[in-house]
Amino acid sequence: MAKKIGFLVNSDRCIGCHACELACKNEYQQEPEIRWRKVYPLKEDSFGRVARGFASLACNHCEDPACLKACPVIAYTKREDGIVMHSKERCIGCKNCMLACPYKVPEFNKKTKKVEKCHMCAMRQDKGEKPACVAGCPMEAISVIDIADDVAGAERSLPGFPNAAITNPTTRFIKPVVGRQVRRDA
Amino acid sequence: MKQKSVVSRRTFLKGAAATVATVSFGGTFFDFLFSGLSPAVAAETNIAELFRSACPRNCYDTCAILSTVQDGVLKKVEGDPASTYTRGTLCAKGFSYTRSVYSPDRIKYPMRQIGRGSGNWQRISWDEAYTEIAQNMLRLKREYGSTLPICLNKYSGNFDIMHYGIEGMLTSIGNTTRATGTPCWPAGIDAQTFDFGTIVCNDPEDIVNSKYLIIWGANPAWCSVHSMYFVKEAQQRGCKIVVIDPILTQTASKADLYIQIKSSTDGALALGMARYILDHNLYDGEWLAKNSKGAEEFFSYLKNNITLEWAAEKTGIPKHIIEMLAREYATTKPANIWIGYGMQRHTNGGQNVRAIDALAAVTGNIGKSGGGAQYAQLETWGFKYHAMSQTKPVNSGGKEDRAININNFGAEVLNAQDPPIKMLWIACRGPMTQDPETAVVKKAFEGMDLVVTADLFMTPTVEMSDIVLPVTTAFETPGVNVSYWHYWMSLNEQAIKPMYESKNDITIAMELSAKLNELKQGSCTFPTSGDLQEWVGKEFSEGIYKQFGIQDWKELKKGPVKAKGSLIAWQDNKFRTPSGKYELWSAEAEKYGHFPLPVYVEEMQSTEQYPLRCITPHWKLSIHSQFQNLDWMAAVNNEPHIEIHPKVAAKYHIKDNDAVKMFNDIGYITLPAKITETVSPDVVAVYETWYKNKNFNVNYTVKAIPADMGKKATGAPGIAFHDNFVAIQKV
Amino acid sequence: MMGEWALVLFTVLSQMAAGAFITLWVLDTVKGNIKEATGTFVSQGIVLAMGLGLLTSLGHLGHPLEAYRASAHFGTSWLSREVIVFGLFFFLTVVYYWQWRTGGARRLVGIIGSLVALLAVPTSGMVYVLAAIPAWNNFGPIFFFLLTAFTLGPLYTAVLLTLEQYSLEKSLFQVVIAALACSCMSYVLYLSVLISAGDVAALTGWNTMLSITFWLRLFIGWIAPLGILGYILAQQQWHSSRYVILTFALVLIGELLGRELFYASAVALTMFGL
Question: Which CATH architecture has domain B3-101?
Answer without folding.
Answer: Single Sheet (2.20)
